[in-house]
């Protein structure tokens, strides 16, 4: 039998901060791809909003960089309005990402 001398501090689990990890471009890329692969609209919108937050890009800055209205961006990223493809592509561009497609295996 193994005897471990562990204190309560040794057993503490640190809180996972998703936004801290999304500051990394590669992590943000994979996070968004996972959301896109899910096909779930809400997950995709949540991913876009979380990436913007993680990168410190507020609605005003996103509006400036995309050339889109702050109000319409807010409605889109809060899920209160459907996202247009042109809006989606402009937001991706701000994140230095682009949309690609891949062939899905037939089941």
Characteristic terms for this protein:
extended; 107 residues; 434 Repressor (Amino-terminal Domain); 6 helices
* Cα Rg: 18 Å
Relative strand content:
under 5%
Annotation, overall tally of beta strands: 0
What number of domains? 1
Question: Low-confidence parts lasting 5 or more residues at pLDDT below 50?
Answer: none
Structural class: mainly alpha
For this structure, the CATH topology is 434 Repressor (Amino-terminal Domain)
Shape: extended
* Assigned CATH class: Mainly Alpha
The rounded distance between the terminal residues' Cα atoms is 49 Å
Number of helices: 6
Short description:
The chain contains six helices and no strands. The chain is mainly α. It is extended.
3D structure, described in words:
Helix content is 54%, strand content 0%. It is an all-alpha fold. The protein has a single domain (18-94), classed as 434 Repressor (Amino-terminal Domain). Helix 2 (25-38) packs antiparallel against helix 3 (41-54) and helix 4 packs across helix 5.
Write the layout of secondary structure elements.
Blueprint: H1 18-21, H2 25-38, H3 41-54, H4 59-66, H5 70-77, H6 85-94
Helix pairs in contact: 2-3, 4-5
């Amino acid at each position: 039998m193994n005897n471990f001398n562990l204190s309560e501090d040794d057993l503490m689990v640190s809180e996972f901060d998703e936004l801290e990890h999304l500051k990394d471009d590669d992590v943000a890329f994979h996070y968004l791809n996972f959301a896109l692969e899910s096909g779930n609209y809400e997950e995709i919108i949540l991913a876009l909003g979380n990436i913007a937050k993680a990168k410190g890009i507020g609605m005003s800055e996103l509006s400036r960089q995309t050339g889109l209205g702050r109000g319409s961006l807010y409605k889109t990223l809060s899920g209160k309005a459907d996202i247009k493809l042109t809006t989606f592509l402009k937001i991706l561009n701000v994140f230095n990402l682009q949309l690609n497609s891949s062939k899905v295996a037939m089941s």
